[in-house]
UniProtKB/TrEMBL annotation:
Pfam families: RVT_2. The gene is RT. Transmembrane segments: none annotated. The keyword Nucleotidyltransferase applies. It comes from Brassica carinata (Ethiopian mustard). SUPFAM superfamilies: DNA/RNA polymerases. GO terms for molecular function: RNA-directed DNA polymerase activity. InterPro entries: DNA/RNA_pol_sf (IPR043502), RVT_2 (IPR013103). This is Reverse transcriptase. Residues 1-87 form the Reverse transcriptase Ty1/copia-type domain. Keywords: Nucleotidyltransferase, RNA-directed DNA polymerase, Transferase.
Amino acid sequence: TAFFHGDLDEEVFMKLPPGFHAPEKGMVCRLKKSLYGLKQSPRCWFSKFAKALFDYGFVQCGADHSLFSLITRKKELHVLIYVDDML
């Protein structure tokens, strides 16, 4: 369900789901959030997640972009994130 929380940066359209009948022929759906199976989903979700960590003061590792670190005087916190289909 992680991919359902990603925001799309571009306009993406899809055919209507099975069982849904449009009032006019040829209508499509415009997506505002990412869906599982959409090629942009992992990137959209990771971008939103990374922004949240940056807002808390985390720094992204240059050697491994899925590793984020927050180091203070008293504490050290490392988050290594991997979502299926992301990399």
